[in-house]
Description:
This protein is an alpha+beta fold. It has one helix at residues 180-212, and strands spanning 12-16, 20-24, 29-35, 38-44, 51-54, 61-64, 70-75, 78-82, 87-89, 92-94, 101-104, 109-112, 115-116, 136-142, 145-147, 160-166. It starts with 11 loop residues before the first strand and ends with a helix.
Amino acid sequence: ASYGPNPICKGCLSCSKDNGCIRCQHKLFFFLRREGMRQYGECLHSCPSGYYGLRTPDMNRCSRCRIENCDSCFSRDFCTKCKTGFYSHRGRCFRGCPPGFAALEELMECVEGCEVGQWSEWGTCSRNNKTCGFKWGLETRTRQIVKKPAKDTIPCPTIAESRRCKMAMRHCPGGKHRRRPAKTKDKKKKKKNLMERAQKQHSIFLATDKTSQ
């Protein structure tokens, strides 16, 4: 039987003009569709998005997924496909993967990521493999890869990092270095020469001025 523009009684064992299918044929799922204030039964081969097929001795039914942001589910509490923009992880849907797991973009799933250990202490401040002779150097710390990722395409976090540091010893013991006082002496010598030249020019100017008078 068919009532109205849609064959609402298709696959039914029993059907109502007002409520649609009441019982479905074997292997089909009963789905109660709501449209505004009206609701009617349908018999489907597979349940629509947001529902899963629940088989019972009495009648197979489409039951709603109770997992937030789930598009299709295997059971009430296990999602098999999340809505767009969400990653599937152990039957749940997440905006981002939990710690220790990496996002597999092509499948929108969270898989076991690269697990790293704790950072070591910062190493000795050095530059050009020397721990003295410079004012500034670099110090480095590292961490080990504890568990490799399930897929080679998933990158591991950085396992080494460096930062600028100030060396404990500016000058190496017994090493030769230029003394700053030498520069000071050169500056004083230049200043003295300039003063002498200025005084000489001033004396010449005074002598010339007296002659003109």
